[in-house]
Amino acid sequence: MRDVIVALDFENKKKTLDFLSLFKGEKPFVKIGMELFYSEGPDIVREIKDRGHKIFLDLKLHDIPNTVKRAMSVLKGLDVDMTNLHAGGGSEMMKAAAEGLTREDGTRPLLIAVTQLTSTSEQLMRRDLLIERPMDEVVMSYARTARDSGLDGVVCSPLEAGKVHAACGKTFLTVTPGVRFADGDRGDQARVATPAMAKELGSDFIVMGRPITAASDPVEVYMRALNDFVK
Ligand code: C5P
């Protein structure tokens, strides 16, 4: 199951397809986020799917249960492999999302929850959200609620993957951004792990953007990540 997901954080279709064209033999699992989806619309998902890539559609839905269920029902038609929502929407919303995403034959794409964004600090939680508990406790509680609502996993730091598995079980997936090579630039990611460390810590999927997309030889860096994390 372990895989490397490449974050396609590009502003338009041309830049995205130029990047994907560099890959001749390999078909990386890719992540399409809000920027690309909002600029190009659902066709960009269809086009990349047609090229043979698995897709994580990272739109982080958060609304009333009925609206999320109906939106997930639309996304189901795009035949993505993984998508997500905010656990903060609550268990009713998560259950409705899973229902909306379920295909006629009972299968559905992997559905992953965002617990607290990594941009949210304990100080922000206290000040803006009136949440007084420590971050770890909040994240693990959201993860358990996601699991109990029938979701498949959470987005978290590789450094939290072990705790999530301890709290929610080994088969509950951890999808982990914040991955950098030891000799690479961290950029704006504060808490990072290498692909090899992420594997050691129990991550199921690593999400890597700039270390691959901004490299002079993206294919070589992707193969290195694959080798360290999957092989
Ligand atoms: O370029 P970089 O490797 O930092 O990209 C990581 C990707 O994962 C980006 O698309 C970013 O939005 C996403 N992400 C993250 N941290 C989270 C959730 C998503 O970095 N907590």
Secondary structure blueprint with pairings:
Elements: E1 3-7, H1 13-20, E2 29-33, H2 34-40, H3 43-50, E3 55-61, H4 65-76, E4 82-86, H5 91-101, E5 110-114, H6 122-129, H7 135-148, E6 153-155, H8 161-168, E7 173-176, H9 195-201, E8 205-208, H10 210-213, H11 218-229
Parallel strand pairs: 1-2, 1-8, 2-3, 3-4, 4-5, 5-6, 6-7, 7-8
Helix pairs in contact: 4-5, 7-8, 9-11
Residues 7, 9, 33, 117-118, 155, 177-178, 187, 189, 207-211 line the site of cytidine-5'-monophosphate.
Mind explaining what this structure looks like?
- The chain is an alpha/beta fold and 231 residues long.
- It has one domain (3-229): Aldolase class I (TIM Barrel), CATH 3.20.20.70.
- It is built from 11 helices and 8 strands.
- An 8-stranded parallel beta barrel has the order 1-2-3-4-5-6-7-8, surrounded by 6 helices.
- Helix 4 links the parallel strand 3 and strand 4 (82-86).
- It is globular.
- The N and C termini lie close together (11 Å).
- The mean pLDDT is 96.
- Bound molecules: cytidine-5'-monophosphate.
- Cytidine-5'-monophosphate binds next to strand 8 and helix 10.
